[in-house]
Amino acid sequence: MTPLTSLRLVLAALPADGQRRLWLLALATIAGGLFEFALLAALVALIRDWLDGAGSGTDGLAALLFVAAALAAGAIRYALLTLTQRLAFDTGHRLIVAVQRRVLGRDWPTHVAARTSGPLAAIEYSEQWLYSVLLPLLQAAGAAVLALGILAGLLWFDAPAALAAAGLLTLLFLASNLLVRGSLKQAGDELGDGFENRIAAVQENVGAMRELILSGARGQAAERFRRIDRRMAEARTRLLIATGLPRILVESVGLVALALVAWWLAGREGGIAAALPTLAALGLGAQRLLPLLQVVNLSVNALTATGAIQKRMAALLAEPDLDLSPPPPTLPFATGIGLEEVSFTYPGRDQPALAGIDLHIRRGERVALVGPNGSGKSTLADLVMGLLQPSHGRLLIDSTPLSRELIPAWQRNVAHVPQAPFVADTTLLANIAFMDPEPDRRRVDEAVRLTGLEDLVAALPDGLATRVGDRGQLLSGGQRQRLALARALYQPAPLLILDEATSALDPGSEAHVLRALDRLQERGTTILLIAHRETMLAGCDRIVRLESGRLA
Ligand SMILES: Nc1ncnc2c1ncn2[C@@H]1O[C@H](COP(=O)(O)OP(=O)(O)OP(=O)(O)O)[C@@H](O)[C@H]1O
């Protein structure tokens, strides 16, 4: 994929109004370039008038007009600056949101298979794209227009001389770009990898802190991070050197080129004296033209250097967008869940995780799923929740086959508690009423009571308003599990799935949870629980055993 194709894909992923704004911005930038050119042409014309008819009565008026135009140019430049910054950052913002929506729109298997550092790196890519691609390209659009205008003026003044100078400069730019192209691409690729590796290293260092402390390996972790960041720093250095080199080459060798043109001009009829006006025009033109050409050239190089980043963004943005339509009505669930000849094989695996599962769970039943590690219990729970879809066979809710389209409606029936629950860095209350903008205090209190969290709430300085820390670190493992249970109980879901959700509970807390399950069952809740401990199996209507992915 060439950088231009990636650029097109990234831009195509912007929402329609974002694309319109971007076009508007490009047009405004080009108009700005045209205006600058017009002003420059007016200045040249004015000077020529003065030189031609010094002392004529129109001088004062022309000068006044020029002052007005120069002031207007200032105002227009300010308006363009405001517009560029507003629209460019608006585009950057839309892009970051679009990327995040793709991340949130992933299905469960894609999410599980992806590196967790990817979405974080994607935010960095989006910002890099804004600063290294979009802003330079916009600047280049305005600069290119002005540069073309200046070139047209020079051509009009002395076509052969302007063509010779422009040809030499173009050759120089092309040659210098060819020279740095390889380094730019390589450094850009290394930076693309670097962003993701650096974030992955930070995540691992933070996540494995206890292991690092105990194994005395913090120094090694610091060294690994240093190496990753060092590679990035070196890549960035090489990138900036390669970006700056064409400018130096063009400016120094460009002087020689201009001297060559001067020498050639001096050899024409009339000698150096006749060539002086052309030389002056070329000198002035080059002085104004070169920085503009640098801007255009920088944006071309930026596209090469950010090829890897753009490619990653284009791939992310090609993923399905998050469906933001209102949640569907809950799928009726009255009689039970049926699994018919269900098999499931994880992508890239030869052996199925589940094979030939025939199982019916009645509405209101409490079923325990037991079996050795790796026997397929969690996979079966994920299939029932619609997070995974059977490779063979089918799932029935009552008598309705669970198609892909019905999954969101079915999931509204499900509450799930995993063994290691996610706990947000917020208050106990916000964790229980997770993502509920208007927590129902009565339901929160009931969930607290059912999970035996009352003592904890009473002992905490701010009760339910106490913050639980990053990933719930200020709570014990058992308290975190009970908090996750309370969150599941807060949702009045008719199917509750507990995946080793009580493994960290002491006997007293476990007894409390078992009583809560009895109460839920009395209210008609269907419970599927995965457990290794015998105590949790008490009260179950049925125990289903899995062995190597099959019902035993
Ligand atoms: N995302 C995945 N990709 C590939 N294979 C997986 C994935 N998740 C699980 N597996 C494999 O599928 C099999 C069943 O795993 P599963 O987690 O369902 O077992 P389990 O019975 O819940 O085990 P445990 O008691 O250890 O939690 C295992 O062999 C496991 O390695």
Architecture overview:
The protein is α/β, with parallel strands linked by helices and 552 residues long. Helices cover 65% and strands 10% of the residues. It has helices spanning 3-12, 16-52, 59-104, 108-113, 117-157, 159-207, 209-215, 218-266, 271-305, 307-317, 377-384, 407-411, 428-432, 441-450, 454-459, 477-490, 507-522, 534-537; strands at residues 336-344, 354-362, 366-370, 392-397, 400-401, 414-417, 495-499, 526-530, 542-547, 550-551. The strands form 2 sheets. The protein has a 6-stranded mixed β-sheet with strand order 6-7-8-3-9-10, with helices on both faces. β4 and β5 form a beta hairpin. The protein is elongated, with a radius of gyration of 34 Å. The protein binds adenosine-5'-triphosphate. Adenosine-5'-triphosphate (ATP) is lined by residues 112, 346, 349, 353, 371, 373-379.
Would you kindly provide a brief summary of this structure?
By secondary structure, the protein is an alpha/beta fold. Helices cover 65% and strands 10% of the residues. The protein contains 18 helices and 10 strands.
- Total of domains: 2
Question: What's the main sheet like?
Answer: 6 strands, mixed
- The CATH homologous superfamily name of the largest domain equals ABC transporter type 1, transmembrane domain
Helix percent band = 55-70%
Poorly predicted regions are none
How many β strands by DSSP?
A: 10
* The first-level CATH class name of the largest domain: Mainly Alpha
Write the CATH fold name of the largest domain.
ABC transporter transmembrane region fold
Total DSSP helices: 18
